[in-house]
Amino acid sequence: MLLSISCEKEPSSPEQKDQIIGTWTLSNALRNGNTTETLNNFKLEFDNDTLLFSNLSGTREKQLYSIDENFIKTKGARINPEYQIINITDSTLTLKMLMNNLEFDFEFVR
């Protein structure tokens, strides 16, 4: 009997990639488990399947992104975080991010 085991990660689903396109506005943010209001105007604008506009740095910047499993990987701006997708529906997006040894939990709506 031959047994084959694969450790290859599954790519994100096409549904997930389609669902993320659009503008997401922050509705709630936690920093290390405590409510924070320093990111009140934070938005993520997924323009297509590779282009993202983010104002995480305080200024709207263009970034490239890719989705691998449940992670959004960004590049090309002053701040290029990796977001973990916790949940996504047609109207809500829940992400986690680690930056400067601080854990952030974000809830977005559109």
Could you describe the 3D structure shown?
Helix content is 6%, strand content 51%. With 110 residues, it is mostly beta strands. It has a single domain (14-109), classed as Lipocalin, CATH 2.40.128. The chain has an 8-stranded antiparallel β-barrel with strand order 1-3-4-5-6-7-8-9. Strand 1 (22-31) and strand 2 (34-35) form a beta hairpin. It is globular and about 35 Å long.
Radius of gyration of CA atoms, rounded to a whole number: 15 Å
CATH architecture: Beta Barrel
Strand order of the largest sheet: 1-3-4-5-6-7-8-9
Largest sheet: 8 strands, antiparallel, barrel
Number of strands: 9
Q: Look at the helices and sheets and give the structural class.
A: mainly beta
Query: Taking all residues together, what is the mean pLDDT?
Result: 88
CATH classification, class level: Mainly Beta
> How many individual helices?
1
Count of the domains: 1
Low-pLDDT residue spans:
1-11
In what range is the share of β-strand residues? over 45%
